[in-house]
Amino acid sequence: MTPEPARDAIASLTNQLGPASRALLDDLSRLLLDQHKLLLELEKARYEETNGPVGGPGNFLNLLLGAPQFAWLRQISGLVVDIDEALSRRSKAVETDAAALLVRVRETMAPREDGDDFQTRYYAAVQASPDVVILQVRIERLLGQQ
Fold this sequence. Notes:
- This protein is an all-alpha fold.
- It has helices at residues 4-14, 19-51, 57-66, 68-71, 74-87, 95-108, 117-128, 130-145.
């Protein structure tokens, strides 16, 4: 069996997505999904404070797909989809694709008080929830490994 550094070197020579990049993207996808779930729960609670109970799962899905209050969360789900597509067996993703995904995640998942709509809402969520903070730190640490 070829040692991991050698496999990564071979992958970079052929420009394929190497094992280290695959592992990083896989871990990142999981963390983003966990963060997305937490943010959905927070946003649902905010929605219910104003509008009353959502009702069943079908009603909630309709809100997720159509209500403006939930639209900002689509940025995370889009990142997860793009990462998962890059990791699929049929993917032609290469190391430069992985690097571009990491840049997008870094830019998107940067909570900013004065950023774009997603970043300001994310900033508020980070301020409001210790669980969101914990996952944000884990995301930042994972991105720092790269």
